[in-house]
Design brief:
homodimer; 259 residues; alpha/beta; Ribosomal Protein L25, Chain P; Alpha/beta knot; seven-stranded parallel sheet; five-stranded mixed sheet; 27% helix
Amino acid sequence: MVARLHVPPLSAGERTLTLPPEEADYLRRVLRARPGLAVRIFDGAGNEREGRVTSIGRHGVSVEVGDPVAPAPECRVRITLAQSLLKGDKLDDVVRDAVMLGVAAVQPLVTARADVPAAAFDEGGRIERWHRIAVASARQCGRAVVPEIYQPLSLDACLDTRRCEARALLVEPSAVTQGRGPRGLPARPASALLLVGPEGGWSMEEIRAAAEAGCTAVTLGARTLRADAAPLVALSVLLAYWGEMPGFGIRDPGLGTRG
Amino acid sequence: MVARLHVPPLSAGERTLTLPPEEADYLRRVLRARPGLAVRIFDGAGNEREGRVTSIGRHGVSVEVGDPVAPAPECRVRITLAQSLLKGDKLDDVVRDAVMLGVAAVQPLVTARADVPAAAFDEGGRIERWHRIAVASARQCGRAVVPEIYQPLSLDACLDTRRCEARALLVEPSAVTQGRGPRGLPARPASALLLVGPEGGWSMEEIRAAAEAGCTAVTLGARTLRADAAPLVALSVLLAYWGEMPGFGIRDPGLGTRG
């Protein structure tokens, strides 16, 4: 597999560039590259080109920029994953997996039951770290888009700010009297907000606020999912439901069928 | 949440029992339990009862066995995840997540491109460890069934031995000319075999052998999934497809619709 490198925004006429320090480091230390190596470069904004390493010096790595190539296609539904802060480093894996599955953005949430002390969340550092994780995940999964990682918001602020066409609130089976599917979600939204809670779940006030803001409560089967696995499962099922996995198309009895 | 403890097979008339050493240890050290604590006990074979800790001694913990209670329901489709060995400890997480999602069994596979030296796989030890992981995951997700972890098999032996009604082979987007859905899989199978390959993917011979054995090739969108995330995504989508997530029901254009 050809190595993929993340570079600043690519303009049409660009013919040569110097790699950013982290990518140069990756090329030298991880790939142990030599001049002449064929690579691909992607700019995080959807552009990808062929490339060839021309020189590897102490002060920089130069790449000759080639023809445009097609990266892995983006989802037609622009999904923002609004994910509660989780204990420890669990959100790192959530960001990595959400990028791999194709989300457009990740919105960290401060929720009532998120058991994360404020001191443990150093805003700037964490966002920067999640951005690096997003770049690494895009590199691996073939996307040329690096999803944005927003600054954390409260649930109320998120519901006010992220005005997506479809809004789904993932709830535990125990939070509702019976399983709830996507009835109430639009069939082919242009944008969607998926809200996933912390280890302790949503508070009753949060569930009420989300319902009032037009969110559809959704459950995913009868077993209790680990907090850090829940967003991956929910994204998988919603992406299939919205037709992003060819051949799978999910039918909601309340909405009629589609391919 | 009431603590759940894994115990040997429960018979109808049982009124008191001594916890196995590992569960007694969990109760003492993790839960720091005292006599009188209400618990639930499950036997891994589908039975769950209320319980109450009656004594905590140096040589054992006694539990009074109460009335039967309903555990998280099992899937109607009995899915066996046949998963290639993966590097490092990655299969540990796959076992944990597959149990959480509701599989009936896990069949480790020795595949052509699995980059796992034979010496690194100490059969007895690994199976025992995966069993402990399966118990811990069942404890957390609410199942009273602990899925069986089989001894590793070659792909050919697995295809000969695990005769499920539906057989799906997960392939990378790059392995097929266009995305493949579940067309060809039965609509409501009683049992299903899901085959997931290693980091390096399946060899051409393996894909051919699986096709000859009646497996349907399935892809999951256009992005490249990490090897250890692929089984979780595939299980999520297939469970929704087969109606195990209420409200979601997936339509395959080739098979007609169902709820």
